[in-house]
Every structure is written in structure tokens, then in C-alpha cells.
Design a protein that fits this description.
By secondary structure, this protein is of the alpha/beta class. Helix content is about 25%, strand content about 15%. It has 1 helix and 8 strands; from the N terminus they run αββββββββ. Bound molecules: 2-acetamido-2-deoxy-beta-D-glucopyranose (NAG) (5 copies).
Length: about 180
């Protein structure tokens, strides 16, 4: 009898503790991803750019336009298209490594693609078409993107030879390098 009561007492306490831990982890992800997206916004909006008006600290990052989250409030899709941003894609993009879809197209972004993109090993769709990204396309970022099905880099300012790494993309269905 005594033993049973012991169990009955501890179970709710354990539940309570794991609930607090769960809330803590959700809040942590929430906070860091919110700040990440705000940093992303600052970088992507160049001196003459504008857009992403509802990406503000007082909102939940999962309600930002163009942002899709999973059940744990982690960003799994970004759809930022047709905005006059004129900035660049910062290295912090690598920290959003739960992304499955990344479309940042027709935004007039400039600069080089950050090598930190290599962290996006869950990516299925990667669309950076219609920007002014320049320099070499860093083919090595695709080496870990084993799930990639769509790669669209159409109409940018890339230079240099074709990235040979893309021949290793076994799941690719749509490739546009024009
Ligand atoms: C990613 O894009 C594909 C194709 O457009 C779509 O079917 C899928 O629902 C998207 N996934 C997310 C998480 O947005
Ligand atoms: C991008 O720049 C071009 C001029 O180079 C302009 O015609 C176009 O409207 C711009 N796109 C956006 C979304 O501002
Ligand atoms: C890749 O993602 C992991 C896990 O989120 C993170 O710890 C690491 O710093 C990221 N690396 C880069 C280069 O962004
Ligand atoms: C990439 O985005 C552009 C819009 O800027 C769209 O027209 C194009 O169809 C997209 N590519 C793919 C493969 O979905
Ligand atoms: C893109 O390349 C064109 C010529 O190929 C050049 O006129 C333009 O200045 C470049 N734009 C940027 C933002 O690098």
C-alpha cells in the first residue's frame, strides 16, 4: 500500500517537471528562431529595400508571412518572393537547418551564397531564382542535400563553371541553372 502511494505521488510531479521542460524547449526554439528571422530580415533588406513588414519582435515567428513551422515551432519552410529587398543572404541562414522548402526568389538579393547553406541537409526545394546573387555557385553546399528534389537558380549573376557536385543529387527532379 505504502509503495503504491509513493508511485501515485511521484507520477504527477514527474509529469509536471516534463511539462515545464517541454515548455522551456518550445520557448527556447521560439526565441532563437524569432531572433534568427529578424536578423535575416535586417540582412535581406538592403539600404534601399523594403518588405517583410509583419516580421516584428512582438509577433510569433510562426505567424510571419512566408514562414511555416512544425509542431515544435521550428521553421520548415520559407517563402519570400517578389519583394524589393536588395540586401543579401547572411550566414545565419545555416542555423535554420530544419528547412524543407526554401524559396527566396524575385527579391533582387545580391552578394554571394553563404557556405553555411551546406547545413540544410533536409532541404527538398531550393529556389533562389530571379535575384542578383553573384560569384561562384558554391556547389559543395549541395553535397549533404541528399533529399533535394528541386533546385532553381535561374536568372542570377553567378559566374564560373557549372558546379559538378550537382550530378550527385540522386533525388533531383527539377534543375534550372539558366
Ligand atoms: C514544400 O513544397 C512542396 C512543393 O511545392 C509542397 O508540396 C510542400 O507542401 C511544401 N512543404 C512545406 C513544409 O511547406
Ligand atoms: C528588381 O529590380 C528590377 C530592376 O533591376 C526591377 O525592375 C524589379 O521591379 C525589381 N523587383 C522588385 C521585386 O522590386
Ligand atoms: C548547423 O546547425 C546546427 C544545429 O542547429 C548548428 O549548431 C550549427 O551551428 C549550424 N552550422 C552552421 C554553419 O550554421
Ligand atoms: C521559383 O520561384 C519563381 C518565382 O520567383 C517561380 O516562377 C518558379 O516557378 C519557382 N521554381 C520552381 C521550380 O518552383
Ligand atoms: C549583374 O550582371 C549584369 C551584367 O551581367 C550587370 O550589369 C549588373 O550590374 C550585375 N548586377 C549586380 C547587382 O551584380
Amino acid at each position: 500500500m505504502k509503495k503504491q502511494r509513493g508511485i501515485q505521488m511521484t507520477t504527477p510531479i514527474l509529469l509536471h517537471i516534463s511539462f515545464i521542460l517541454f515548455l522551456f524547449s518550445v520557448t527556447c526554439h521560439g526565441h532563437s528562431e524569432l531572433n534568427l528571422l529578424l536578423n535575416l530580415k535586417t540582412a535581406m533588406i538592403g539600404p534601399t529595400g523594403s518588405g517583410l513588414g509583419d516580421w516584428v519582435p512582438s509577433s510569433s515567428h510562426c505567424s510571419f508571412s512566408g514562414v511555416t513551422c512544425d509542431d515544435e515551432s521550428r521553421v520548415i519552410a520559407l517563402f519570400v518572393t517578389n519583394l524589393p529587398l536588395f540586401g543579401y543572404l547572411p550566414p545565419e541562414i545555416g542555423l535554420l537547418n530544419t528547412l524543407v522548402n526554401l524559396t527566396i526568389s524575385s527579391d533582387n538579393l545580391t552578394g554571394k551564397l553563404p557556405p553555411e547553406m551546406a547545413n540544410h541537409t533536409s532541404l527538398r526545394l531550393f529556389n533562389i531564382s530571379n535575384n542578383f546573387f553573384q560569384g561562384r555557385f558554391p556547389g559543395e553546399i549541395t553535397l549533404g542535400m541528399t533529399e533535394l528534389e528541386v533546385l532553381d537558380t535561374y536568372n542570377n549573376n553567378f559566374s564560373g563553371s557549372l558546379p559538378m557536385e550537382i550530378i550527385k543529387l540522386q533525388n533531383i527532379k527539377h534543375l534550372h541553372l539558366g
